[in-house]
Here is the input.
Amino acid sequence: MNHRLALPLHRYDGQGRVLPPRMLWLALLVLMRGWLAWLLALVMRPDGSALLGLLYPRHQDFYTALAIGFLPLLLSLMIMQRTRLWQHGWQALFVMIKPVLLGLLLLDITFQLRVIYLQHFSFDLLLGGLVLFDAVLIMWLQRSKTLRITLADWQRPDPEESI
Here is the structure.
């Protein structure tokens, strides 16, 4: 019997499960940037509000970024606790990762385009870069064979249960 691995060996953990792709973590971090900015502002205590004011001149934009970043924060926690979810038989939750990320990236692009509109279409390298990067992440989500294999693997029952 010849068993071929779907991915290179370094993409598996010690239990034979596929590790999360780096681009998945990157997509989650990009979507959680409001939370990361808030955390950075907390660490830089005296200048934290100045940092948030620089990144988000309108308070509403900051709160919108926090709202967009809440689900990616939960998805990150879910991915980090995937072994525990497998042990409790909740592997069906991993089905929602791809559609939720796709929807959040589209929402983030809409949010960035709204900010660009409110700035009267004046060029901003950061906003343009974020829109472009979100578009690249959407293409990656749609085309990634690694992500497809990873999510299919994560939906299988826990291999330790069958022992």
About this structure: The chain has a mean pLDDT of 88.
